[in-house]
Amino acid sequence: MNVTKLPMDPCPAGWNAILPPQAEYPELENAQTADWLVIGAGFAGLAAARRLRQLHPKDRIVILEARRVAHGPAGRNSGFMIDLPHNLTSEDYGGALEADRKHARLNRAAIDFNADAAAEYDLSGEAFCRPGKTNAAATTKGMRHNQTYSAHLTRLGEAHEMLDAQQMRQMTGSSFYQGGLYTPGAALIQPAMFVRGVADGLSKQGVALLEMSPVIRLERDGASWRAETPKGQISAAKVLLAVNGHVESFGFFTRRLIHIYLYASFTRRLTAQEVKTLGGEPRWGVTPADPLGSTVRRISGTGGDRIVVRNRVSYHANRECSEEKVAAFGKSHDKSFAARFPMLKDVEMEHRWGGQLCLAWNGAPAFGELEQNLFSACCQNGLGTAKGTLSGILAAELASGHQSQNLQDLLAEPEPSRLPPEPFCWIGATAQMRWGEFKAGAEL
Ligand SMILES: Cc1cc2nc3c(=O)[nH]c(=O)nc-3n(C[C@H](O)[C@H](O)[C@H](O)COP(=O)(O)OP(=O)(O)OC[C@H]3O[C@@H](n4cnc5c(N)ncnc54)[C@H](O)[C@@H]3O)c2cc1C
């Protein structure tokens, strides 16, 4: 397999840019062997390596990452590790009851695994904490979405609480929201800090992490596999592909994955006076009541007090996105920020970026044994902090012959369904996204 395309995510992400310099890992520069090779150091790759380390303490485990650790999508997302059903293609995030119960159980197993990693590697509460999350509603329609979702959660037997406008203001400092729906089970991470921390922890446990080492060719070598990078090669008995949508570059799940980019902007550091004027709590995060609205977070700690806004989505079958696109969607972030925080009218955005991810039309994962001793932990359907972690853990278990109920459940999922040919897919996906954003109205 010649790898047809390498990852590119436009502009450095604010999450990483506000942190101190990170640990550097070497590039692969020679010929090596390993028992296990994990390709990709996002949530799936790091979770796979950690699970492999638990199952095989003496084996040599290598991770090859095309870029620097935490520079890819794992270090540029909004950091909501969500336990409950969060179906991005439904009106209110809900789905069928039994399927939602199963997904909540699986997502929780992944969040517990990451909580355990955070404790094991001594990560701060800024890198990983579990405060729950709120679906914020700015409009009557958003409130209706929350009520429908609340009824669905009641049917599922899931704890939740409706917040009124005053409670939303107490949390966010903003009078923009009419209400919210709080659920207690989600974790919030500083994504770049969390990913760096887990990578450092694994490295101290003897996992060999090699950065700036994109796999450009993967070929069978008897029962093993040989991966080539521009400067070296590794032969490994078993290989786990944890590259999300780039699994298509390896020749798998072709025309089954919808490649999209999401966009975010980070304010400059707020001054002490601005923090006072804003009010609210120092750290919070809200997802939108309408799936195509704006996700907003306030952070404080390393890098100061800031606000992060994420909205807009675009379809890119070629997995390429320009900095111009980031700048164009940045205008939408400015508008959403101004609507929510009129008291911060002099605060400008300091960092803007985009990041790539993929979905399947039927919401299925690209998971399983692809060929003998070659495994996939890909296609997280936009919720990779939890689902990527889960598929990494379970791909490690599958490759190790380890049985579990969670593994059976993931294996029972369908595979990503086939997409319509281009340009119909582009037209359909883009029309659906633009219409969804239009319908989101002031929730955007
Ligand atoms: C702006 C934004 C906001 C988001 N918000 C959230 C959120 O709040 N919650 C949530 O759950 N998800 C969110 N996501 C999605 C989430 O970031 C992804 O679903 C998640 O990163 C997927 O994890 P992963 O490990 O499967 O893949 P990735 O994180 O993409 O990791 C795959 C890694 O593989 C590497 N790679 C690819 N090809 C090769 C190769 N040939 N050789 C070596 N390495 C390779 C890449 O460089 C990358 O580092 C967001 C995404 C964006 C962009």
Features:
444 residues; alpha+beta; 8-stranded mixed beta sheet; 11 helices; 19 strands; 33% helix; 24% strand; globular; binds flavin-adenine dinucleotide
Tell me what you see in this structure:
- With 444 residues, this protein is α+β, with helices and mostly antiparallel strands.
- The protein is built from 11 helices and 19 strands.
- The strands form 3 sheets. Strands 1, 2, 9, 10, 11, 12, 18 and 19 form an 8-stranded mixed β-sheet that branches. Strands 6-7-5-14-15-16-13-17 form an 8-stranded mixed β-sheet. A 3-stranded antiparallel β-sheet has the order 3-8-4.
- The protein is globular.
- The two termini are 42 Å apart.
- 51% of the residues are buried.
- Bound molecules: flavin-adenine dinucleotide.
- Flavin-adenine dinucleotide binds at residues 3, 6-7, 39-45, 64-67, 72-74, 76-80, 214-215, 242-244, 246, 262, 264, 310, 355, 357, 380, 382-386, 388.
